[in-house]
Design brief:
- The structure is a homotetramer.
- The first copy, chain A, has helices spanning 16-22, 25-28, 50-68, 72-84, 97-104, 111-116, 118-126, 131-138, 142-148, 154-167, 176-182, 197-215, 218-236, 242-247, 250-259, 264-271, 289-292, 296-310, 343-346, 348-360, 372-382; strands at residues 2-6, 10-14, 183-186, 189-192, 277-283, 318-320, 333-336, 339-342, 362-367.
- By secondary structure, chain A is of the alpha+beta class.
- In chain A, 51% of the residues lie in helices and 10% in strands.
- Among the domains of chain A are: 2-168, Hypothetical protein af1432 (Orthogonal Bundle); 276-324 and 361-411.
- In chain A, strand 7 and strand 8 (339-342) form a beta hairpin.
- Chains A and D meet through strand 1, helix 3, helix 10 and helix 15 of A and strand 1, helix 3, helix 10 and helix 15 of D.
- Chains A, B, C, D: InterPro entries: dGTPase-like, HD/PDEase_dom, HD_assoc_2, HD_domain.
Chain lengths: 411, 411, 411, 411
């Protein structure tokens, strides 16, 4: 058994199969994948990695298992899955997921390739565990998969407190001790035990406050969109392919962008924080359903149209359309007076949080600072947006009010 | 200038009139008034006092003034009011307020007596300040009174983080730095500046989560209700009068209860945490409006009736009816797109929090453990409550689900 | 099993004999004994109690036992002893120990009376534990007594972090997780395992820094000396006796001082922080051995002489002579290259800390502010001190340089 | 003015010349230089960067200036120097300093090139500041240079608390508020004001405890030595030159090592934490002075000899000889009884810390795990070390006892 010092959970004791997995290359690679991707452009302290997060998830899983009295092979599988749950991520965490998926047809589930062959599979088998059973848990399948990837999984418990610790934004400070202690299985469902409506609410509210302040801060979204566009440039220039791209670490990607002529300008902008600005920042109800559901090629087509209309280069317009608002934790189950209920049916606050997701949703069009005005007008026209005003007009009434800490000279 | 080390704000620098006020007996007395009254029966670390809280409020006021650019006499008055704002509290903080008010006809506003005569008035005048102007600020009057006692006052900013620090419950961890920095005056109203809907929301959500978990935890309410009944016993026995009672500190009250024969049993119970238990714990919609609005004498009458019906001594029944749900922060103002708006009109979350207050409201009837069942039945009948089940019946469906950390073997 | 939320260790789970002991009056009394006595005159946030500390000690003992693999009766006894270890304290913690001892002949070890009869003894026996065996552990007797009261006991691990948390002084922030994990028994001695010289050093250095900054801050010493003198007044006036005094809680003592005519002036001074000031603050090497070793009656005699010489009332001179410098943790054992060694033989830092104790030692003479000068001169002469200058002469060279955070207008 | 959220100091407000400097490429590059180089192999949370540290140093400088009453051009220069003080660092912080120095003849002071020409120089001049005057401050020259780079500089105040926050090791938790408040200039020297011997001691003790636990942990030293050897390989293979190397960021270096055939094996080992182990770990007094003072070429020669003697490849032996023990803070000045004194003359503890540096000094010889034994014997013989035992012999008596948290399966 080894003991690892963690800035969030203090000492994490790792043994058995987890100890053996720690030294495998796909786990060590997580040391070089930032947990929050481009969020460090907003919160400069947010440089923590998927590696320490994975240790934290392992630790919380371990405590939950101990409270639930789960032992033996099931417990070993869950511990392994907790440590491995993020090994499938590409560089810059979620930032490039869509991109890789479009090219490879694999989304998240290359996890099978990673876990069922090679060194990790050997280690798992050496400890009497079936690699495919562990991969199932990582995907959230089965009763115990809920602990690793579900509405009440230990993944989000770790990332909320860890992201709070490293960004300095206190909203994610949940009571992980209580949450882990109150997890229970009722009729095969992972639930919070009696007396924990509020415990469940606190988890959702933490996410509801962290979301616009941290995860969807507009500067993080802009830099993420630029990074995605740059990575597409790499693929287009045949500097890499999607299969290779998804196994890069953050170092590889940064350097590849610098070394490829077609992406060097993006690299320069990202390296010097010379980011695009918002030309449009539009609320949910002024955006057509068709646009929200548009596929990748259609969005690229819109970008070209907007650029043409504005008289700028196509690379100078980035259209960023988030998926429809959703809040998976709202289906968390909690026991109330002996019956299992969904949190969203039980809690007025949770219902409100679901509505808030829609209020906070924004479509963004980004462009270099000196062309935001013409790009804004062009986008308004091409995308059929009925805006009261452009972002460039002193934060017009359809624009965001979410301008949290910016480190920032942006609109 | 002196520098005082605080466990929450680190160093607090105190000078001018505040430094002179620090040594007055009515400020020093706050060292012996617990901030959270009987909450330490639930959270044993919660022994912080009104004195350190008052220093914290002074500190946040000072920082807000500096950000707002307020100087001179107005600033000095506000600093004095911030330090003095709690000097009117009786022992055990809010626990005895109603009681003292009923007897003295003074509620909160004995503050005039305290500040406009005696040593404090002398100190204020020595520093060129009008005692009655400072008293006005403590009561929240006028433009600047909003900073000391209003929806966005620095009082609640301090107590949320301080109570979180000392209870160990993380929900109160708000971003005081940002809040204080974003305060502004627009058309004479204290508001949060542009881009701070979420900042305002975070303040309300912190209260919404701290409320049932800490401030209104049933064990805190039970012990508070017992303390109030005991204090009434002191008055009835002429062991003290309301004027004297309200100037006691916590030490005085504890010892007075022990020394008076009629209250010795309450003192024993409070000293040994041998508290009453819930016989009834009823939701808002099963309680008649008449009962919610009943005055003190009527409630005492109900208690006697319930006791008679249950065949127990009148001192063994405590009826605890909170005031109607309310959430003052919801009227906080925030600037959105250049216009001042009320937070509750702007925020879906805040509307939800207002509804939640009602969901969380509970009427309680408390009794010694061995008679909760007969007292429960009697209360159900006398008070006309339509309960699905009593608390003694395995947490029946009309009972609370708020049973947070209890230190506790209670129902 | 119950779970108690603690501001330092988060959740503390209490069960078995400890859960049953929690509700006994002598444990509940600890809620009303401040952990740091009069230190809150210097650090206003330091209002934590012996009760929460006792829970913390129980918690660390529990974790140490789990790491050491100790189970069964021995473990249950140690847990009980950890929770009970402070029940023998009088009001205001250590402040009155000497006083009570002189009168009762019992020092610390009235613990036998408390644990071997009455409710606690019954609870212990109900759980199959011998009360006298538990009392032995509290006194630090036997192999396992070292865990509860010894150089490496969990008592000091808890109080260092707890006092740091509540005072805001960071020096006590040790790594309790590592300390508890590295405890081991070698040849019947409690030691820190291989590779932990530094772990041991960190514990001593934490104490070495907390000592002058917190525990022996001159304002804490002055108020403690005044409180002791006041308590003697109570005894002299027959307002109480030593047996009763030692079972008071802080509330009782404060009120008793107010109610007794002979101590009312001390009570007023303590209630309003109108404390004596230093008239003399003398280093170790200018104080005669005879004076350092003087007994209580001799010291009272000196006080009277100084008062007479200075022409002031005897109650206006307080002579405060600490015991000789000592540092018990320095005999802590640690394993180095397979051999058990004493930390002080192994660590240059520890040797230095031992010397520092002497450097920091100070004899104090205290008096009301307006007579410090004449009392200073009188004390210099009566006590035969060869001072370069009095405290009143701009911090003369024989005076302290330890004037940490004062909240303070003192010399 | 902008406000940046920091995980250590909360809000950092940046304006004037500092705000303008923030966006320059040489400052933005610091986002990609880890503060603690290879320490994250021991403490996986330690991924914080020179960028956030530079903001922290700026912040503490700003507070110190405000306390010292320094304004105008001097203050602006100091703020600029604080923000820029680390821009001269190569990749992986201090890890490659010697290497670059040997090749370029520039050590630390390429700072002149960086600050006195190009964009930074333009920004400085635009704000009326002389670039060379700012460069002087960065080098610690002149009265005010002491604030930026001296025994009491704000640099070390920031890194101690920041490294503690991110590693989770509490020893660095100093009281920055007090330190910054107590800085003063006396006769042109930066000192701690009267009453701060302990404040100064706490700074040194924090370093004394962080040093072996964090900064010189053997796993951090091994990985640093491997990285240095790998970087030499890059130069030898002409994959880069020293001038280019020193302006790389961490990403560039990692990828360059992977892309160069001669360093690919080092890259693989570093990427997968397949690190060398200690073959020798020798105390100060068994190492010849000649060896301690050996220059780079001599050390390489020794390595080759040891490898030949052990029959292994030259790349498999790494000899790591730290410079002689030193403790710059010990010359810190503090005012005692009105006179400026050096802390080491005043404090027994500081003298002890100086001796401890020597106790903790270790010469290391590292090799792949499977050849440590033969390399150990060869090194013992070639280097003339009189060891009691090799590291491979159960932690022989001349080996370290400093094996703190390892994340680690190393000797």
């Amino acid at each position: 058994m080894i003991s690892i010092k963690d800035s969030v959970h203090d000492h994490i004791e790792v043994d058995g199969v987890a100890e053996a997995l720690l030294d495998t290359p796909i786990v060590q690679r997580l040391r070089r994948i930032r947990q929050l991707g481009t969020v460090s452009y907003v919160y400069p302290s947010a440089n923590h990695t998927r590696f320490e997060h994975s240790l934290g998830v392992y630790h919380l899983a371990d405590r939950a298992l101990s409270n639930l009295g789960i032992e033996g092979t099931n417990a070993a599988r869950i511990r392994a899955a907790a440590l491995l749950h993020d090994t499938g991520h590409g560089p810059y965490s979620h930032n490039l997921e869509d991109l890789v998926y479009r090219q490879t047809g694999r989304y998240h589930d290359e996890i099978d390739d990673l876990l069922t062959e090679g060194e990790v599979a050997d280690v798992l088998r050496d400890h009497g565990l079936s690699p495919s059973a562990v991969a199932d848990l990582v995907r959230g399948d089965g009763k115990y998969g809920q602990l690793v990837s579900g509405e009440l999984d230990v993944d989000r418990m770790d990332y909320l407190v860890r992201d709070a610790h490293h960004t300095g934004v206190p909203y994610g400070t949940i009571d992980t001790g209580r949450l882990v202690r109150e997890l229970d299985f009722t009729e095969g469902e992972l639930v919070l035990g009696e007396g924990n409506v509020q415990t469940g609410e606190s988890l959702l509210l933490a996410r509801a406050l962290m979301n616009p302040t941290v995860y969807s801060h507009h500067v993080a979204r802009i830099s993420k969109a630029m990074l995605r566009r740059a990575a597409e440039g790499l693929l287009r220039a045949d500097a890499t392919d999607a299969w290779e791209l998804r196994r890069m670490d953050d170092d590889d990607l940064r350097v590849a962008l610098r070394q490829c002529g077609e992406t060097a300008e993006y690299a320069r902008r990202l390296d010097t924080r010379d980011l695009y600005k918002r030309a449009v920042w539009a609320e949910y109800d002024v955006v057509d359903d068709e646009l929200i559901d548009a596929d990748h090629d259609t969005i690229r087509e819109y970008e070209r149209e907007v650029a043409a209309e504005a008289g700028v280069d196509a690379e100078q317009v980035v259209l960023d359309v988030p998926s429809r608002p959703d809040i998976p934790e709202s289906t968390s189950r909690v026991v109330v007076n002996g019956q299992v209920r969904r949190l969203r049916d039980q809690s007025t606050l949770v219902k409100a949080v679901m509505r808030v997701q829609k209020d906070q949703w924004r479509l963004g069009v980004y462009a270099p600072r000196d062309v935001t005005e013409q790009v804004g007008h062009a986008a308004e026209s091409v995308l059929g947006l009925d805006l009261d005003a452009l972002v460039s007009d002193i934060r017009g009434s359809r624009t965001a009010t979410l301008d949290e800490f910016e480190e920032a000279r942006d609109e």
